[in-house]
Structure formats: structure tokens, C-alpha cells
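During the reporting period the student researcher (J.K.) took over the structure-prediction task from the postdoctoral fellow and processed the backlog of single-chain submissions. One of the processed entries is reproduced below for the supervisory committee.
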Amino acid sequence: MTRASGPLAEALGRGAVLLDGGLSNQLAAQGCDLSGDLWTARVLAERPEQVAAAHSAYARAGARVLTTAAYQVGYEAFAARGFDRAATTGLLRRSVRLAARVADAAPHPVWVAASVGPYGAVLADGSEYRGRYGLSVRRLADFHRPRIEALLAEGPDVLALETVPDPDEAEALLLVLAETGAAAWLGYTVADGRTRSGAPLDEAFALAARSPQVVAVGVNCCDPAQVLPALEAAASVTAKPLLAYPNDGSVWDAATATWHPPAAPSPPWPLADWYRAGARLLGGCCRVTPADIARLGGRLPPAGPGAASGPRLGAAGK
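J.K. obtained the following C-alpha cells:
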């Protein structure tokens, strides 16, 4: 039993790597209360053992990457909810430690990805599915910088810059990433062949193509039907490994804080097509369960040998 010791980027050069699925749905299945604006961060603060249990469920399902519970943790919003700066920093760092503890005990090599959700996620009003917050790139970078610094202090293997709706926010995240020297993947949330803010996909993906620290780029938390066109758009502007971890096709209703399920069950995802398009990080997002991840893992092309060899990838300077 050992934590993955080789850089995730090296493993992506050898084949597909299986991600985990939705943290919120697994916590709900474990009986956790996700009501209120804090969402999964409420469980992170009040019942951290349940977060570890959720990570363990995905590790048992075969996930090779565990994504932390930091998605919705941010300093300004949490200050309004009674968390001082030290407490918020503690939550961010705790999220990495919990995932790392499970990764260390897993029966197969597992990487830890520190989740960096978009500005809209911290607002808890669904605006990550709209973007265009009216903030400058500099202001967005100032928002994300302390979150990223706190996460990197615990030495995750990679940052998951995820559910990004807007190229402006991606630019801000990549600006902070360049300051740290850390590695990351970048996932946009998309709809109708564009980012959620309406930007062309080729322009959005080109930002990541220019960053040497981005180990993979693609889409997450979108309808599975949106994945293949988005991967093809990404492949047209970058040779980087691609990523795909959609939700189950449901639509989030921010007004009622509920998911509206798809009109018809989603067919089995075309993983072979996604893989041929360049996807090497494959998994699920909201409403994708450990059982779903186990089934996905059974259909992935096998990675090449030596996925756990080589120097460990950690925070900047390590």
C-alpha cells in the first residue's frame, strides 16, 4: 500500500488514469447534511471523517486520483459565515490531508488533486454555470491566490482548476499558477459548444496550451454529450493530454439547490471515442457514484507500466 510517487504528467503519457466521481452525492449517500451555502465544506468543517470515508469509497472503486473537498472554500465568503482567516486556511489544508491519508492507505497508487473551484462556486448561487462575474483578471487572481497557496502548503500532487466557466477566470488561475511553479489540470464547464460564459472553446483551450504547468486540459461538470466536441476543439489547439469528467447529464437549479435529472438515462459514455480524441484523465463529476467509477474503470484502456515510478510531484520547489 503506497501513495503514488511518480508525477501524474508521466502517467498520462502512458495511458488513461481514472479519476473519482462526485463528492457531494457520495457525502449525501453517507447521510451527511449538505444544506446551506457551505455545501460540502460544511461536512469538511463539521464531519471530516465523512469526507475521508467518501474518498475511501472512490479509492475502493479503483480511482487513481482523489479530488479534495476544497471546491467551495474561499476566504471572503467564509468570513461572512463566521470563519476567520486562520479557520479558512485550516479547512483548505485539512482537505488535502484527508485525501492524502486515504491515498496513503489505498491498495493501489493514488494521486491527490487539490480542488480549486471557480469564484462562482464560493458565491453558492450557481454562477459558476454562468461566469462573467464583472471582475477583472487581476481581481480574480487576488481571490484565488491565497486559496492556492494554502492548498499547496500541504503538498498535493496536482491542482484541479475545475468547473471554470470563463476564459478570464482561467487566465487569472494560470497567472497564479505561474507564480507558484505548481502543476495543475484545467477543466472548463461547457454547454452548446462554448464555455458557460459563451466564449469559443478553441480560444479558451489555447490559454492552457501556452502554460507549461498545465498537465491536462478539458471539461468537467457538463452534460456527457458535450464532451466529445469539446475534446476535439481542445485537440485542435493543444497537444497536451485531455481530461473529461462530466456529470450524469442533470441540470443544477440554483434557486432550489436541487438537480433536475436528465429526461432519459444517459447511454454508456463513449470512452473509446474520448480516449481517441486525446482524453487521458477520465472520471465523473456531480451525481457520478463510486459504482459508476468502478464501471468506468473496467472500460478504460490500461495505462503502461511504471505508473508509480519517478520523483514525486508536489508543491512549488519540491
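The committee noted the following: Residues 8-297 form a domain with the TIM Barrel fold (CATH 3.20.20.330).
J.K. will present the remaining backlog at the next meeting.
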